[in-house]
Amino acid sequence: MFAIVLSLLAFMIATHGASLSQNSDLDDAASRFLARYLTQLYSDPDGQNMPIIDEARLKKNGLGLRPLRFG
Fold first, then answer.
1. How far apart are the C-alpha atoms of 53 and 70, rounded to whole Å?
2. Residue 18 CB contacts under 8 Å (≥ 6 apart), including other chains
3. Where is the signal peptide (predicted)?
4. What local confidence, expressed as pLDDT, does residue 24 receive?
5. C-alpha angle with apex 19: 38 to 17, nearest 5 degrees?
6. Nearest to 31 by CA among 63, 70, 71, 5
7. Gap between the Cα atoms of 35 and 66, Å rounded
């Protein structure tokens, strides 16, 4: 449960600046930050660094992470 709350908090932090701007570079940076954070969060517990969430696989499947726009 704590990991879910922490993930949502990281998502909100990563997308806050992007939601206030029309700058696509900022959107990309927030997406990369979130993907990197989630990859580290859901890595293999044995330390093999085999992420369950893989940014390249998500983009390949058309599920690339994009910041939400509020307002």
1. 25
2. 26, 27, 29, 30, 67
3. 1-17
4. 65
5. 70
6. 63
7. 10
